[in-house]
Each structure stands twice: as structure tokens, then as C-alpha cells.
Amino acid sequence: MKRVLLASIAACVAMLPAGSLRAQESIKVGVLVSYSGMTSLGGQQTDAAIKLFQSKYGDAPGGHKIELIRRDTTGPNPEVAKRLVQEAVTRDKVQILLGPDFTPNTLAAAPIVTEAKVPTFVIGAATTGIIGEKSPYLTRTFFATPQLCKPLAPYAVKNNWKNVFVMVADFAPGHDCEKIFIDALKEAGGTLAGNLRIPTRNPEFSAYTQRIKDAKPDAVFIFMPLGELSLGSLRAMSDSGLKAAGVKIMGTGDITDESYVDAVGDAALDVITTGMYSTQHNSAMNKEFVAEYTKLNGASPRMGWGAIAAWDALRLVYDGLEAQKGAKFDPDKFMAFVRGRTFESPRGPITIDKGNGDIVQNVYIRRTEKVNGVLQNVEIETLANQSFK
């Protein structure tokens, strides 16, 4: 009797259309971000964005049930990232990746995801020469260094801050930004007052700020990663008296990211930054996004760039899986779908370049102000459709 029952079940399954079986296929999505250490807010924001997205759009786009596999990269640690990515694609059979975060981690992951054909969304690395060049399976929903480092040079010259001191973190993205800004400054007719590379671990800023004061610049341009260095650099600019002396402080939006800016305090006031996103962005979509995010996840920690990068990556993941509804997941067709996509985000319109896979997006020049007693990045100028080059 048991054999008859099993045979009957098998016969019924065999009669089902192939698409019905495939529609139940689960898709394993690896989330490799920092959940511990100084950069742990990145992981918290990624999870918060996922939670909101799935509360609105479910967890089975195109009938593909999403199974999330989270791993802690612990920050910029390529050895850890390489091991985690290898385990994710070989042991866990992950088919799509969000992360790993930071440039060295992404570079370590690139050959592995290429060999395994795993579409990978870069949500926390900005260095040029990653997307398109290192793997055809990488795309980016964060920002590319030129998008934020180039625009402030002509903006400074336009505002008569022509003699600029450049201070960057001493790692690959910092070197990248340093060159891009200095080249753009010279092209705009400005002059370089000097430049410094700050060690990424335990820097003592007082010696560096003295060198800046001695150079007597009109402005200081800063590029630091999110976290301790961003906090330290802005506090140092204030404590040294540079701001009080009228030296304009500007930099990429990492230094005033909403996740950390309250810890900086009034040292962040009037700092000019370039950014891909601010919770103050004035659009109906963003107002709804911020309200829903805050309602679901709370007002603290505040939402920053990590959340919007993850949100837009999920938009592409869901749309790409919906396009393969009723079919077995095909990573090459998925990437072909993602490249060339244009859609409206809470940050504004974005496009994934069809040839390169990198992001084209608006960049906003912002000033840090107090709005209803809270430090906010208020947009004062929009630079539309900025390229990754």
C-alpha cells in the first residue's frame, strides 16, 4: 500500500508543468557586511533596509523564495572577506551577493564570484577600477569615487576658495580621491596648498592640523571612510581653530553621514559635502521612504548611505528575479537584465550602465545645518547624472 501511495504521488508530481516546480525554487542571497566593530552600523542599516523592503514587497519575487545568509566581514579585512565569500559560494551555494563591503573586501571577492558566476551588488566600496574591470558579475549601488571627489574642486574655485589643502585616509580609495580632486582643482584654476595621507588606525590629528594651519589654505578638502576617522577629522578641524579662522571645511559626504554626524556635534556645522543621498532629499518617494523606515526600525541609529545602497540593490534583485518568473535562475540573464536599468530611487533617478555595470546618479552638494535642532545634510545644489569616470 505504501509503495502504491508513493508511486501515485510521483506520478502526480511528474504531471505538473516544469514551470510550477521551478516557481518554488529558492534563491540564496548572501549578505556580507560589517556587523561588529567600528563599522557595524553598516550592517545594521543593511538589515533595516532589507526588513523594510520585504515588509512591503514580500520575500518571493517571481516565485523565487529569498533565503538570506548573513556573514560578518568585521570591517575592511580582505582575508576574512575572501574566506567568507568562498564559503558562501561553495558551502552555502549562494546565488546572489550583497557585499562584501569596502574596497579591499570587494577586490578579494571578485575572482571568486567571477568563477562561480554569482551576481554581486557592491553596496559599500567606491574605488574606481572595480566595477566592470574586475568582474562581469559586479554592479554597484553605492557611489564611484569620481562622483563625489571631483565636483567640489570647481565648486571651491567658484566660491573663491582657490587655495585648498587635501587630507585623505591612507588607503586605496583615499589615494584615488586625492588624485581625482587635485587634478580637478588644477583644471578649475585652483592651487594645492598641500596634502596629507592619514593612517587608517589610531591617527593623532593634532600634528596634521598644525601642518594645515601653517599652509594657510582657503579650504580643506577631506576624504575619510565612515566611522572613527570621519569623527576625528571634523573634531580636529574644529579643535585646532581652523574653522574659527575662516578656513572652509569640505569633503565627501562620508564625513557627515547621518549615522555618525550626531557624535561629531557642532564641529559638523557649515561643512560642505558632496553626497549621493540625504534623508532631507525633497521628493515624495524619499519622504515616504524615510517615514516608513523610521516607523519600522526606529529613529536611532539614524539612516545613512548604507540603507539606501542596500534598498536599491534589493530593487534590482527583485526586478531581476521577477523577470525570470517561472524559470530556473540564470546568473547571466540576470546580469543582462540589471545592466541598463533605470529607475527612480528615494535618492533620485539612477541608471546602471549597460556596458560597465557601474552606477550613474545625481550628486548633491550639501551644507550641514541644524533643522529643528537636529544636524542634517541640506542639499544646496544638484549635479544631475554624474558618471563613474
Structure write-up:
The structure is a single chain. With 389 residues, this protein is an alpha/beta fold. The chain folds into two domains: 23-143 and 283-357, 3-Layer(aba) Sandwich (Rossmann fold); 146-275 and 364-386, Rossmann fold, CATH 3.40.50.2300. 41% of the residues lie in helices and 23% in strands. It contains 14 helices and 14 strands. Strands 6, 7, 8, 9, 10, 11, 12, 13 and 14 form a nine-stranded mixed sheet that branches. Strands 2-1-3-4-5 form a five-stranded parallel sheet, sandwiched between helices. Strand 8 (219-223), helix 10 (228-239) and strand 9 (248-252) form a beta-alpha-beta unit. The longest helix is centred in the N-terminal third of the chain and has 18 residues, at 40-57. The model is unreliable at 1-23 (pLDDT under 50).
